[in-house]
Amino acid sequence: MKTKNFIGLILSIAVLLGLLIYWREYATRDQVTLYHVLLWQLAIWIPWIIGFKVLEKINKCSVESKFGLPLLLGVGLVFVCLHFGWFFMFSSTYSPYLDLEGSRFGVYRYFFIFWTLVDIGLVWFIIDKLKTTIEREPKPPLLLELTRGSNKYFCEPSQIYLLVAENYYTKLFTTEGTFVMRKPLKSFYDILPQNMFRKIHRSTIVNVNYVSELSRGSGHSLEVIMKDGTRRKVSRTFIKEITLFFKDRTY
Hints:
The protein is α+β, with helices and mostly antiparallel strands. The protein is about 50% helix and about 20% strand. The chain has helices spanning about 5-25, 35-45, 50-60, 70-95, 110-135, 185-190, 235-250; strands at about 145-150, 150-155, 160-165, 170-175, 175-180, 195-200, 205, 210-215, 220-225, 230-235. It has a five-stranded antiparallel beta sheet with strand order 5-4-3-7-6. It has a three-stranded antiparallel beta sheet with strand order 8-9-10. Helix 1 (about 5-25) runs antiparallel to helix 3 and helix 2 (about 35-45) packs antiparallel against helix 4 (about 70-95).
């Protein structure tokens, strides 16, 4: 969640609550102006921008910690208490309803319902958005451990351009050479990035970034031609899917 979006949210809350309070206290409209009420509410809710930045920083620092969520909740509740303190201090001096009948410290009792619900809602909303943002951040590149003889090689997905199933083995063609692994093709397909690797046959997966051509043959057949000249047949099951996939990727 971006700071400017949160600022927009806070401004919306301040204006909405200002309008609701002004509408609710219709008996005092001859003594209070809407402009004063809106300014008062803006001043009350602006400190939440600081709270958002604090929670955002704590979230980044504790993303790998098992205490991350409890810490965020704790800090959020502390900020709610501080916000109540600010609310009383500011309202007892600048509230447009100060010294009016039925008000105390410049507020009416039902104000507390609004403030409490909105404060708790903001804490939950911020934490939920911050956690969602962290989860959406790209993960570090996946590394595959491949073996050839007694040597181990670590390959990123971008280094693999073709995978072919051979009985109980999978042959991987990479920029580091060819590897034969005793694992089914499906085990690789399940972990490789779907936007980079596409199945063109039940026994073949290609890295689309290494495809140079789609070649049409007789009888509506289709072949994928790799940049190194390797040709692989596309089964009828995948012809439409592969054709549409490359159509969407090209300009």
